[in-house]
Design brief:
The chain is of the alpha/beta class. Helix content is 55%, strand content 8%. It has 15 helices and 5 strands.
């Protein structure tokens, strides 16, 4: 793990002392390390030759298969795509598997990712499992925040909230554990906002960095266009909901950088490779205007996640963007 030593130590202690809870809820922003921590915990629960109590060896057959998510006693469930819905049928199928005894490990581990995307019927169905957990079953939920879930779900879980790491800690971890060159690790630490999982994904999938650059260039171009051109752009991309959501997330980092820049903290921006454009835009809009744009993009992403008319939401967002030329 990169960072989150307190959470690692807490879970290791639970295993070492035999005080495992039947359910855990790991919260924090996407890419912060929720899934990695869950997999490490699953490994520590079932490791065949732990070097110390509560610590997985990471080399035995069980640890390796859990790492690859191919172990018969590890079940992972999530909505098919980010921003879509976890359905009740998926939860019922999981419950059927959890009713069976472990195939070979000490515990069956159910990992349910992005539980904030669960349909209310799926959440209520999962509540029954948390109220009457089968023997030798550990349930691990991940979510953006506990506030997005039913209070009855949260109350039945051990809650661990993972916060983004500092840029320096993230960069050191990427360099030391993943062998990234220092220049690349520092860049990705900034781009990921202290989320090591997201930084690793950017490193392993260079096309994501290329896509990010394309989306930021697209935003800068949009700011110089007319209302008619903006509506034409919205019509072109709105059908691909997953692409739209991801692009808005990248735009959000840019507007947050504008907000940071206008507040006088230029050294803290995320998109260092766009610092020139950020400073130019920050010079022509004020702090309050930047804050309004951040809120507007966040609201639009929320609308899309809750199946509000995406075309209408995007049209409103683009219409309210300022018109700014010559920031490239």
């Amino acid at each position: 793990m990169i960072g989150h030593e307190w959470a690692v130590n807490l879970l290791a202690e639970h295993v070492a002392l035999g005080r495992e809870r039947h359910a855990y809820l790991l919260t924090g922003p996407s890419g912060v390390g929720r899934r990695t921590l869950a997999l490490r915990f699953a490994q520590s629960l079932n490791c065949l030759k732990p070097p110390l109590a509560g610590q997985p060896c990471l080399t035995c057959s069980t640890c390796k298969r859990i790492e690859q998510m191919h172990h018969p006693d590890l079940m992972m469930v999530m909505a098919e795509h980010e921003g879509e819905t976890l359905k009740i049928d998926q939860v019922r199928e999981l419950q059927h598997k959890l009713a069976l005894a472990p195939y070979e490990a000490q515990y069956r581990v159910a990992l349910i990712l992005r539980f904030e995307e669960a349909h209310v019927s799926a959440a209520n169905a999962m509540l029954k499992t948390l109220e009457e957990p089968p023997e030798h079953v550990i349930v691990i939920l991940t979510a953006n925040s506990a506030e997005e879930l039913l209070p009855t779900i949260v109350s039945r879980c051990e809650l661990l909230h993972l916060r983004p790491l500092s840029t320096d800690e993230t960069a050191r971890g990427l360099h030391n554990l993943k062998g990234m060159p220092e220049e690349i690790s520092e860049k990705l630490a900034h781009l990921s906002n202290g989320r090591p999982g997201y930084a690793i994904r950017l490193f392993e999938q260079p096309q994501l960095l290329e896509q990010r650059q394309s989306w930021l260039d697209e935003l800068i171009q949009i700011l110089a266009t007319t209302q008619r051109e903006r509506f034409a752009f919205a019509k072109e991309i709105v059908e691909d909901k997953e692409r739209l959501r991801n692009e808005l997330q990248v735009w959000l980092t840019f507007w947050r950088d504008i907000l940071i820049c206008t507040s006088g903290m230029r050294h803290s921006i995320t998109n260092l490779d766009y610092s020139n454009q950020i400073q130019k835009l920050g010079a022509v809009i004020d702090l309050n205007s930047a804050k309004i744009q951040v809120i507007a993009v966040e609201r639009t992403i929320d609308y899309i996640d809750h199946n509000v008319n995406a075309r209408q939401a995007l049209d409103v967002l683009l219409m309210d963007f300022p018109k700014v030329n010559h920031i490239t």
